[in-house]
Design goal:
- The protein is α/β, with parallel strands linked by helices and about 260 residues long.
- The chain has 2 domains: about 10-120, Cobalt-precorrin-4 Transmethylase, domain 1 (3-Layer(aba) Sandwich); about 125-260, Tetrapyrrole methylase, C-terminal domain (Methyltransferase, Cobalt-precorrin-4 Transmethylase, Domain 2), CATH 3.30.950.
- Helix content is about 30%, strand content about 25%.
- It is built from 9 helices and 13 strands.
- It has a 6-stranded mixed β-sheet, sandwiched between helices. Strands 3-2-6-1-7 form a 5-stranded parallel β-sheet, with helices on both faces. A two-stranded antiparallel ribbon has the order 4-5.
- Strand 2, helix 2 and strand 3 form a beta-alpha-beta unit.
- Helix 3 crosses helix 4 (about 105-110) and helix 7 (about 180-190) runs antiparallel to helix 8 (about 220-230).
- The radius of gyration is 19 Å and the shape is elongated.
- S-adenosyl-L-homocysteine binds near residues 96, 203, 204 and 205.
- S-adenosyl-L-homocysteine binds near residues 18, 19, 93, 176 and 234.
């Protein structure tokens, strides 16, 4: 079926999912294949970049914590310039563009400059981690609340989060960008009343061949994160719903992925 939703001079923010190209939506693949230019994030891996057609220009504007290769204003300006040049522009973002992806700034900059912009959702890291571990983020009678939390802070600053609210019973917490804040997350949640033995799942490189998972408890979160995560993107899931794992999974690891217990 022909599509007329990608005119020259328009922009799609496209969710690339967690890394496995099979976790792209069909729409994402179609948009990537139709693009004249694709701006990519550091989190978008090689298997997905390989889908960018040879005729399309590929521009990496990746940011990794602490090493901002381009600031957000510069990225906005590049997107606007590409749209103004009449190109079909794809802005490829890890996971889902609406979660911790600076989508709002890019949408605002493009709209302000008069360029059409749309969003194609993607599978966010927390969903992919739950799927990979074979567990449910919400759990009847245990977790009726699921929070997506960014644990990113400016270098050296304390995390500015409402720990009392996060520590409430019946919640599953998905911490993004939490690797360097793991000690603080553990300390603050316990200080706010969360049990020290609350189960935790740490997952690096979700959905990639290099994926690693580690099951631990809240008071060991800092130690466990250091043991597992080096530079890989790391998602931390905290909450009683993770007991689904501590009961069943260690005896029978899923697939061939590295799985450990600490
Ligand atoms: N928009 C993205 C999140 C961007 S913030 C999404 O929806 O997933 C970047 C953080 O996302 C990383 O620091 C990490 O916490 C998490 N993340 C993204 N991809 C990941 C992956 N493949 N494995 C583990 N964590 C991932």
């Amino acid at each position: 079926m022909p599509h007329d939703d990608f005119a020259p001079g328009s922009v799609w923010l496209v969710g690339a999912g967690p890394g496995d190209p099979e976790l792209l939506t069909m729409k994402a693949v179609r948009l990537i294949e139709a693009a004249d230019i694709v701006f990519t994030d550091a989190l978008v891996g090689p298997a997905i970049l390989a889908l960018i057609p040879p005729h399309a220009e590929q521009v990496s504007v990746g940011k990794r914590s602490g090493r901002h290769s381009k600031d957000q204003g510069a990225i906005d300006a590049l997107l606007v310039a590409a749209a103004a040049a009449g190109k079909r522009v794809v802005r490829l973002k890890g996971g889902d563009p609406s979660l911790f992806g600076r989508a709002a700034e890019e949408i605002a900059a493009l709209r302000a400059a008069g360029h059409p912009v749309d969003v194609c959702p993607g599978i966010t890291a927390a969903s992919a981690a739950a799927a990979s571990a074979g567990l449910s983020l919400s759990l009847r009678g245990v977790a009726r609340d699921v929070r997506f939390v960014t644990a990113h802070s400016q270098r050296g600053e304390a995390l500015d989060l409402d720990w009392d609210a996060l520590a409430k019973a019946g919640t599953t917490l998905a911490f993004y960008m939490g690797r360097s804040a793991a000690d603080a997350i553990s300390r603050e949640l316990i200080a706010a009343g969360m049990a020290a033995d609350t189960p935790v799942l740490i997952v690096c490189d979700v959905s990639l061949p290099s994926e690693k998972q580690l099951t631990t408890r809240l008071d060991l979160l800092g130690l466990a994160t250091r043991a597992l995560a080096d530079k890989a993107p790391t998602l931390i899931l905290v909450g009683e719903a993770m007991r689904q794992l501590t009961r069943a999974e260690i005896r029978e690891p899923i697939g061939s992925k590295a799985r450990a217990d600490l």
